[in-house]
């Protein structure tokens, strides 16, 4: 099983700032099958990034994904108020599919 | 509008059974893989099960293997999860989700609103 470790657990930033979230895998993620999701409390997750760097339909271009192998990053270039939420990475190239434990992005 | 709507959650005693349903609309259901994901209260996301578009490939998390059964009815645009021998640790919001393409390996691009399953005596 591929274990995904997200850091930091909590990130405190202000609107307009840049956010960098990390996701490390215990072994190489096949074909960079790595996704990022945003979850606002009480709501379902929303797909942001798939295949490590492809933006999902309707996702603003301030969200970008990068990385390969075992190290992946989600960057939000300029934070908007609606971006403060919990973010999860997920690998879907290996079985079982696994999620990271999440990074909480909170308003400073 | 592309939509997934789960139903069937509720309160059940340990050892009991429950069948969740997920009604799909607004897209070609029969061409997409489908998944179940759960989230225990205050916890992160856990993948539960996946089924291919034709039901030819089915996968389960070890935590539910032998107790849960995923199925689909493409004629009814519906996904199901039969849950037997339920345990307290199965308590969670259960989401159905759609695979984001027609290849065999997919992220999950559309999610339902979730249905709560509580296992308690």
Walk me through this protein's architecture.
The complex is a heterodimer of chains A (108) and B (121). By secondary structure, chain A is an all-beta fold. Chain A contains no helices and eleven strands. The mean pLDDT of chain B is 97. Chain B is built from no helices and eleven strands. In chain B, the strands form two sheets. In chain B, strands 2, 4, 5, 6, 9, 10 and 11 form a seven-stranded mixed β-sheet that branches. A four-stranded antiparallel β-sheet of chain B has the order 1-3-8-7, with no helix packed on it. Chain B has 121 residues and is mainly β. Chain B has strands at residues 3-7, 10-12, 18-25, 34-39, 45-51, 58-60, 68-73, 78-83, 92-99, 108-111, 115-119. The interface between A and B is medium-sized, with 26 and 21 residues.
List keywords for this structure.
heterodimer, A: mainly beta, 4-stranded antiparallel β-sheet, 49% strand, B: 121 residues, mainly beta, 7-stranded mixed β-sheet, globular
Structure in a nutshell:
Helix content of chain A is 0%, strand content 49%. Chain A is an all-beta fold and 108 residues long. In chain A, 34% of the residues are buried.
Topology of helices and strands:
The complex is a heterodimer of chains A (108) and B (121).
Chain A: E1 4-7, E2 10-13, E3 19-25, E4 34-39, E5 46-50, E6 54-55, E7 63-68, E8 71-76, E9 86-91, E10 98-99, E11 103-107
Parallel strand pairs in A: 2-11
Antiparallel strand pairs in A: 1-3, 3-8, 4-5, 4-9, 5-6, 7-8, 9-10, 9-11
Chain B: E1 3-7, E2 10-12, E3 18-25, E4 34-39, E5 45-51, E6 58-60, E7 68-73, E8 78-83, E9 92-99, E10 108-111, E11 115-119
Parallel strand pairs in B: 2-11
Antiparallel strand pairs in B: 1-3, 3-8, 4-5, 4-9, 5-6, 7-8, 9-10, 9-11
